[in-house]
Amino acid sequence: MAFSKTPQPILSIENLGITYPGGIEALRSTSIDFQRGEFNVLLGLSGAGKSSLLRALNHLVKPTSGKVTSAEFGVLDNQRTLRRHRRKTAMVFQHHQLILRHTALQNVLMGRLGYHSFLRSLLPMPQADLELALHCLDRVGLADKALSRVDQLSGGQQQRVGIARALAQQPTIILADEPVASLDPSTSEKVLSQLKQICAEDGITAIVSLHQLEYAKRFADRIIGLANAQVVFDAAPDQLDDKQLALIYQQPVSQRKAEFTKDKQQPSVQQKLPQKTATQLEIAR
Amino acid sequence: MSTQVITQQDMLKRYSQRWKKQTLQVVALLAIILLAAWYVNVLNFELLANGLPAIGTLAGESFPPDFTNIRNWFSPLLDTLAMSIAGTAIAVMFSVPMAFLAARNTSPHGVVFQLARIVLNALRSVPELIMGIIFVAAVGFGALPGVLALALHSIGMVGKFFAEAIEHVDEAPVEAARAAGASPMQVLYHAILPQVMPQFADVAIYRWEYNFRASTVMGMVGAGGIGFELMGSLRIMQYQEVFAILLVILVMVTLVDALSGVLRKKFK
């Protein structure tokens, strides 16, 4: 969808940095412009900073430096702007994050909360919202499960309810954090193609974090590779060669350090243990 | 991110240390229990043996149970039932907002959190019988002081359990609601409350059961109900009647227990 590139990005981050309490740096000062309608994939190992970056885009994680700017609402620097931005920026999570004892329909209606005041949301949702929610469930192929409790659905179905909830927000952007990491390969493919297709149909900009290279290559318009809290690659999937891949899938600094220490401390006690066991006994973090 | 390397020997050493520690803890606990038992004369078998004949005499005097006045007990029993239901309902009503203030993850401020905890502790630490005496003095004899006493004391316990349920809520749907642009109040109502509903129902129903039992004693301080009858028979040493009333209460408690079991299953 390169043709749709406009001078103004739909969402951009400038010098965004995230350091968690305790000094763990999840993202080093990063700037990225996301173009309208593109399917972006954040690719990297777990711990590379994908989740933190995604969650900073709607301030679920508060960045410690830099800013996020939405084309529609401006810089996210106050509660009101943030709420409007969140309403239009839906999120799909690795573990779906649904309320298990609610029905699929009730969960999808959660996507409409941002459109109503607290007092209004105490009453049953308006007819239009109900119809929209049912339509969203229909689009992910779960219309017949609308009144089933979510804990009675399969993993793949639960994730699709998660996508329907996102669609119910009528979003311009969808952020998806490892949406298929807990699904089996064939379900993963179905879920990702569905997401891609819906985004294309509705002109939704998608920013999806993945750790599987094949999916990234297949679905992405643009791949942003992250390693050690930094962007190490940013281009179309066909630009990705072995050298670039090595950069993305390099071992995290901390683990490499650990191996050095291990080598140094290889004393007599461990001689009986096979090499592998010594590695397994490592407790990271 | 710090990384530790642990050898097999370290692991085994830690394992055996943990076992020693656990054994020590169990021994310490047993010592405390024995000390407490000795302190309250439970280990004084001579004293216990002397008490047995007296208990035997009382048991003999209570037999057979005397149900001649049973017609007069229906109305007080109904009072007791109504007191327990109304008291629990009032307690739940005030416990929900208190719980949100007293739960670490939903309290608006650290000071509010501490204050709410103090209020709950205070309500819990005044026994309902004492509250009953106070309310009888304030609003006179009858079911009303009983209801107020049960309600106020229950808030302390129910509020604490509600707050604990809120603290153990799954944060994932909460994050999802925030991500969808829900306001803080909407998050409380739509993402947290649905999750804690089964626990809330569980605690409320259990508390109703407890309040029914507690309201049988409330009558002793003049706060209405079957306890009033019980106290009357006890004062004139009509032990056969006391036994009969206790049996009636047992039947009612069993019924309430069964009903609450059914209700709780419904809320799973």
N-C termini distance of chain A: 41 Å
| CATH domain fold name of the largest domain in chain B | MetI-like fold
Major sheet: arrangement of strands of chain A: 6-7-8-3-9-10
Radius of gyration of chain A: 21 Å
Could you give the count of β-strands of chain A? 10
How many DSSP E strands of chain B? 0
Tell me the CATH superfamily of the domain at 2-101 and 171-250 in chain A.
P-loop containing nucleotide triphosphate hydrolases
In this structure, how is the largest beta sheet of chain A organized?
6 strands, mixed
CATH architecture of the largest domain in chain B, please? Orthogonal Bundle
CATH architecture of the domain at 2-101 and 171-250 in chain A: 3-Layer(aba) Sandwich
CATH superfamily of the largest domain in chain B: MetI-like
Largest interface: A-B, 46 and 30 residues
- Kindly state the percentage of residues in helix of chain A: 25-40%
Q: Residue ranges of chain A: pLDDT <50 for 5 or more in a row?
A: 256-285
Give structural notes:
- The complex is a heterodimer of chains A (285) and B (268).
- Chain A is an alpha/beta fold and 285 residues long.
- Helix content of chain A is 37%, strand content 21%.
- In chain A, helix 5 crosses helix 6 and helix 6 packs parallel to helix 7.
- The longest helix of chain B is centred in the last third of the chain and has 35 residues.
- In chain B, helix 7 runs antiparallel to helix 8.
- Chain B is globular.
- Chain B starts with 7 loop residues before the first helix and ends with a helix.
- Chain B is mostly helical.
- The chains are: A alpha/beta (285), B mainly alpha (268).
- Chains A and B meet through helix 2, strand 6, helix 4 and helix 10 of A and helix 1, helix 7 and helix 8 of B.
- Chain B: It is found in: Cell membrane.
- Chain B: This is Phosphate-import permease protein PhnE.
- Chain B: Keywords: Cell membrane, Membrane, Transmembrane, Transmembrane helix, Transport.
- Chain B: It is a multi-pass membrane protein.
